[in-house]
Amino acid sequence: MKTDTTNNNAKHTQIYDRLYASIIAGDYLPDNKIPTEQELSRHFGVSRPTVGKALQRLVKRGIIERRQGSGTYVKPNINNQKDSCSVGVVMPRVSFKSSQFGNMSSLFDNVLAEMSHVATNRDCYVVYNNLIAQTNQELVKNTIKICDSLIERNVDGVLLFPLPILEDNQNVNIEIAEKFKNAGIAVALLDRDIYEGPKRSKYDLVSSYHTDAGYEVTEHLIETGRERILFLSDKIRCSSTKDKITGYKNAVKQLSSKEACKVFKFEANPLSDIEHTFKKENIIEVVQEHEPDALVCMHDRMAAEVIQIIRKDLKMKVPEDISVVGFDDESFAAFMSVPLTTMRQPTIQIAENAIETLLSRINNPDQPPKTILISTQLIVRKSCGGLRNIPPQ
After folding, report:
1. What is the rounded CA–CA span in Å between residue 309 and residue 293?
2. What is the pLDDT of residues 280-308, one digit of tens each?
3. What whole-number distance in Å separates Cα of residue 214 and Cα of residue 245?
4. What is the pTM of this model?
5. DSSP letter at 385?
């Protein structure tokens, strides 16, 4: 467990990660000019010196270059990888517009940036096409196009982040993985399996230990005196959410005197680029009817929405009336009006293990499938009510 004590923790690193991910994703092309420090400062809502530190790191890594009297450009040879091993990445970029923070990027933008770092050090390069969609149908269509493009390019391997499972695309992840397999391209999965569970696929999987994360964050709430703890989720089916719920249920059953597990699933659009993806009336109804003293939200974005609803619509206080926790430790979590307690996903370790696992699969195609689960970290902030009954570190 780690207690977060500052809102100024390496902002320039966050800016660096987001710019690097944008360059790798092709938002800024080789030999093209990127926005000025002043423009980037306004876009990210930080000072120019903070942006300057991020840009200087990109210069040192040979990603961008400053041209006197002209500006800052992506280096022309950034995609000159010669005969290196090629790693395709199929992963949606889910960004959204926050009234508090402006344009926000996803946790997996940081994973993409880290994977590019690791690949470079292993004489590989990452092939990524921007995968952005507003509807599930559009997401499936665009994903298949990208898969066909990677197959045509004959990449050596693919890291696949399975799509959300809805009623109209229950088999899409299976079909995508099979397309690569039939083309002789190695596949490793990120974050979740292509099956909801308990069935396990035949592909390598690199993921955070979601069951343990669900248990630990619920355990912390119980230790701080919370008794009526609800789990809030969307109705999208995926193994990672199912594992978090399993961890939550295990903690309540083993540690709480109430032993009442209640999970509520709502209709949502996870691809929406606006701040609100859930109907607030549904959240209000659950809180009013069940009177919880703590809410475990399936991810930070949902937790941010829930906190806003609790404070503005229900006129209740967080954490005095209700504690709220999330998962992922997205870039905005520490800077919310009520800083969010959350389970941090280890982006560096995920990236390192993903690249190493895929390279191992490329070199040893007949080896048994591996499952690599990486521990998350509890980050305690104000939204859970502090450290009551928790011994000092």
Report:
1. 15
2. 899 999 999 999 999 999 999 899 999 99
3. 6
4. 0.78
5. T
